Amino acid sequence: MSIISDKVRINEKIRGRELRIISETGEQLGIMSAMEALEVAVQKELDLVEISPNATPPVCKIMDYGKYKYEQTRKAKDAKKNQKQVIVKEVKFRARIDQHDMDTKIAQVKKFLEKDNKVKITLVQYGRERMYADQGIGMLDQISDRFVEIADVDKKYNDKQKYLILSPKK
């Protein structure tokens, strides 16, 4: 919200000697000195707002700055409202997990996918379990086979980290 007021120069803060002026209705008034343009804006009880400072000469528009700033903040809020945040939920599995515990965790993964969240399924291995990593990879493959219809599966089997990322199908 404060981003707009920091970057836009208005009224006396405009530095250029000559300015290209646009009226509040959008018609070009031509090139004027900064003082003349400010007088025109004061007569109309509006503000002189610098729109394009990098142009030669800089372009300024006569408008109600408070209303302009309000509309810009509304647009920013609406754009932020329509954004969708991607949330990644993580579920950790061990290679030696009981079937009931596995079913419970898989049910939780389904809930996350139904709520349109991405799910990261991580294989946790301690000590000697690392020597039998193929068992854990087999379990991850079983899990990925269960979710082929409802999610896109991305498998990552690095040296130490082994995980799946499931993203819901559209």
Automatic annotation (TrEMBL):
Translation initiation factor 3 N-terminal domain boundaries: 10-79
Keyword Cytoplasm: yes
Source organism, top-level taxon: Bacteria
Pfam family, one: IF3_N
GO molecular-function term, one example from the UniProt record: ribosome binding
SUPFAM superfamilies: Translation initiation factor IF3, C-terminal domain (SSF55200), Translation initiation factor IF3, N-terminal domain (SSF54364)
GO biological process, one term: ribosome disassembly
Gene Ontology, cellular component aspect: cytosol; membrane
Keyword Cytoplasm carried by entry: yes
Subunit structure of this chain's protein: Monomer.
Chain's role: IF-3 binds to the 30S ribosomal subunit and shifts the equilibrium between 70S ribosomes and their 50S and 30S subunits in favor of the free subunits, thus enhancing the availability of 30S subunits on which protein synthesis initiation begins.
Protein family membership: Belongs to the IF-3 family.
NCBIfam families given in the database record: infC
Name of the protein in question: Translation initiation factor IF-3
Species for this entry: Cetobacterium somerae ATCC BAA-474
